[in-house]
Amino acid sequence: EPEVTQTPSHQVTQMGQEVILRCVPISNHLYFYWYRQILGQKVEFLVSFYNNEISEKSEIFDDQFSVERPDGSNFTLKIRSTKLEDSAMYFCASSEVAGAFFGQGTRLTVV
Amino acid sequence: GQQLNQSPQSMFIQEGEDVSMNCTSSSIFNTWLWYKQDPGEGPVLLIALYKAGELTSNGRLTAQFGITRKDSFLNISASIPSDVGIYFCAGLWGGSNYKLTFGKGTLLTVNP
Question: Less packed terminus of chain B by CB within 10 Å, N or C?
Answer without folding.
Answer: C
